[in-house]
Eukaryotic translation elongation factor 1 epsilon-1
Amino acid sequence: MALRELSSLEKYLELKKPNKYSTQGDKKVGLVTIACYLVKEAKRSELLGNSAESRAVVQQWLEYRVTRLNGCAKDDVKTILKELNLYLQDITYLAGKQFTLADILMYYGIHPLIVDLTVLEKEQHVNVTRWFDHIQHYPGIRRHLPPVAVLRNRIYTSGH
């Protein structure tokens, strides 16, 4: 999957000359390093953050992606979704107000988890669902992944 993600990232970045890269097994050890390299090659450094603080936040989420999402057990999915839902409570993107590489790679990593959620589970993680739907509709991001239907309006109010 990492190679498909990197290929999609290359297309999003509109890199003309395809790069030759490989990741180390299922651990995807090189995913973050290669993705950062591709961003720099494309001269899109804003995707790595515009300030020292945002660059640190982007790196934190890239590390989270590799250490928590890659190969997570089913038992960890609820915890991951709960953490993300809380974090995304009052922000649009993982680095705050700016779309970054963290959003792209987290979207690729969380896609298989969101696909398996029921409508009720998506409603329980409304902030993650909102963020996910926003990123999947970001131009050029969803390359190799199928779209995920997201319910836009609640069927019932909290009073019922």
The chain has a mean pLDDT of 87. The two ends are 42 Å apart (CA to CA). The chain has seven helices and no strands.
